[in-house]
Design goal:
This protein is of the alpha/beta class. The protein has one domain (about 1-170). About 30% of the residues lie in helices and about 30% in strands. A five-stranded mixed beta sheet has the order 2-1-4-5-3. Strands 6-7 form a two-stranded antiparallel sheet.
């Protein structure tokens, strides 16, 4: 797993790249993102969801670890993905000072090589709802109500599987907002 960083001039950024970044970072432009990367998953946030720089970084690191485990352990390093996270701010003109949490509408995570999508009817996932453990009807509604934002249903099998959604904002962020 490696990181992709969006810049205006990838060649110039690569020339100025620090030695420790050479093994883990690939600089790309918007054109590279459209041609070489595919949408892995996308999450929409509740209205007025504020995320701090630290919160963004922690989520990106968790997703990076998820992908690295999948690539290296489950897939035996057959594929080494590049990942790019695009956070979608509500106010496109807001300046991010790194300290003040910003309001975001969602996040889109891109992968290169593009994630594989196979029709679910030809390649069913390992676990389907009918194969899962039985849930008593009296608690079935409670389970569904307590579940956080779920990954979008592509109707397809996705390889690698999408990471879990970001956690809801902490109570500290809600009371401070």
């Amino acid at each position: 797993m490696k990181w992709a960083r969006l810049v205006d001039d990838p060649d110039r950024a690569t020339q100025k790249q620090k030695p420790d970044e050479k093994l883990s970072v690939r600089y790309i432009c918007e054109k590279d993102l459209k041609e070489s990367f595919g949408v892995w998953t996308q999450y929409k946030f509740p209205p007025n969801c504020k995320v701090s720089q630290l919160g963004k970084r922690e989520y990106e690191m968790m997703v990076g670890g998820f992908l690295m485990y999948y690539d290296d352990i489950l897939r035996n390093a057959v594929v080494d993905h590049y990942m790019y996270c695009r956070w979608e701010p509500r106010d496109k003109n807001a300046k991010d000072d790194g300290k003040t949490p910003q309001v975001y509408d969602g996040i889109t995570i891109y992968l290169s090589p593009k994630p594989l999508r196979k029709p679910a009817d030809k390649y069913p996932s390992v676990h389907t709802a009918s194969q899962g453990p039985g849930v008593h009807e009296s608690i079935r509604g409670q389970v569904h109500e307590s579940v956080a934002t779920t990954a979008p249903d592509y109707g397809d099998y996705v390889d690698p599987p999408p990471p879990p959604p970001p956690p809801p904002p902490s109570l500290d962020q809600i009371s401070a907002g």
